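We read letters as residues; the fold follows as tokens. A sample entry reads:
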Amino acid sequence: MRNFDLTPLNRATVGFDQIADLMDRVLTNDGSHDSYPPYNIEKIDDDAWRISVAVAGFSEDELNVEVKQNALHITAKKTPDDEKRTYLHRGIATRAFERRFHLADHVRVTGASHAHGMLHIDLTREVPEALKPRRIEINGTKAVESNAVEV
């Protein structure tokens, strides 16, 4: 496992705490985390994505999708069957799970759907007008007035 000291980054920058936290999270991940359930992240447009999670065996009532503090939380818990079943082979995993996705600033969940054993979550980036680039008009060749005092 690699260890990186991010202290110089924190000393030399202001306002990049999220990037440092993200790097710390990625670098401390040991790779042994559970890969259940499988998922895809698809880019639909420049500012739109879709997360598709394979949730075969779960009904809509057993799935929960929440957004908390710039993080998307997907959880599922199977309700116990009233009738006892005897399986000769059980290949469809229906164990409880929790999946988290950290969302960038201004990324919003716009909808979720459940069909054919897949949970689809649509996301879009909605940048406020104040943060969008704007063109500044350049005045002609007029001299810029200065209030500076000459010494």
The mean pLDDT is 81. Strands lie at 39-45, 48-54, 63-68, 71-76, 97-102, 107-115, 118-125.
